[in-house]
Amino acid sequence: MQKTNYQHENYTEIRKYYLPDAIEDLFYQLVKHLEKIIEANANRYTFVWKKVVAKMRKKCLLKYKLLSIK
Known about the structure:
Elements: H1 7-44, H2 46-69
């Protein structure tokens, strides 16, 4: 009796039916993880940027007023 090898069919079945859902789930988990990391790092330096942003906003508004007058 000859032994048949159906590995290529198994691989195709896995790739066709199971991998798309698994890859989508992994991608979703990765995005959520990166979102948490970015948010944590953004909140860490908020106090440093708050004064600078307020100062630059005042300067930009002043420049805008000067340009709109001309």
